[in-house]
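Help: read this over?
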Amino acid sequence: MFTSPRFLVIGRAGMDFYADPPGTPLQQAVMFTAALGGSSANIAVAVCRQGGQAALVTSVSDDPVGEFCLHQLVQYGVETLHVTRVGGEARNSLAVVDTNGPATQAVIYRNNAADFHMTEADIAPLDLAGYGALVTTGTVLASEPSRSATFAAFATARAAGVPIVFDLDYRPYSWPDARTAAQTYARMAEASDIIIGNDDEFGVLAENYDDGLAAARDLAAQGKTVVYKMGHRGAITLTQAGEARTGIFKVEALKPTGAGDAFMGSFLMALATGRDLTTSVLRGSAAAAIVVTRVGCAPAMPTPEELDSFIATHPGATLPDED
């Protein structure tokens, strides 16, 4: 499906603080560990950890936190040529998280987020030659000027014949209202080749939770590949050729964060290395299962060897009615 295991990823990089030691509730924490975070940065790291190449397009704050993000991206092998610094009062996203399984708490700070300052001028120099796909997440669309910049990047990719992959990644606190999100998502989905999201996110796109699956089916009927994720109920992969249901790899989770980003990175790399669509979805699901058992998001992304070993030793993906 992709001509190269090299991906251009648009969207945010941030700093994550995790209460330490693991299991400490946020309100009782006095020590924290820091890690790279942000959905697009995590996806880029996941691709690199799986043996691919990824370049990130974003803006970071021109301060030590922005420098931390840049340094971490480089340490993980992510290309940063298209990461710009913004001054003034713009600040990188900050997530403060604990690791208590179903009771995990996460507080996200996104005030005047630096990544929202990405402009069309930042997109103009992009050369998409050699990239297997352009990848973005819905977070980058929640505000201007990054929304217009992302659509400009999509136009560039479309003109170059580069596939477009869109992770809905709906964060309501970033949007002015659900209606704006729905309209923007519909426009983005129309331009995309592969759309990935959970049932809640497709419900936002459809402007009615109960119509989310119908919206996914409509997109598939248009020739798009759609992965409709349903949490513990697995996922449905939809194409013009039909639908396939896959289960989840059960684990004891420390936290839910990073699962979708791990899924995306491993899914992309599976497709890029010639695996079929169902196998690629399962490898994405396995990577998600690994990440939720580890502290952090970017540092939790598995290597190919770790992913292969997990799949080989796990009882296998199951659906609820198989329990």
Notes: Residues 6-314 form a domain with the UDP-N-acetylmuramoyl-L-alanine:D-glutamate ligase fold (CATH 3.40.1190.20). The chain has one domain: 6-314.
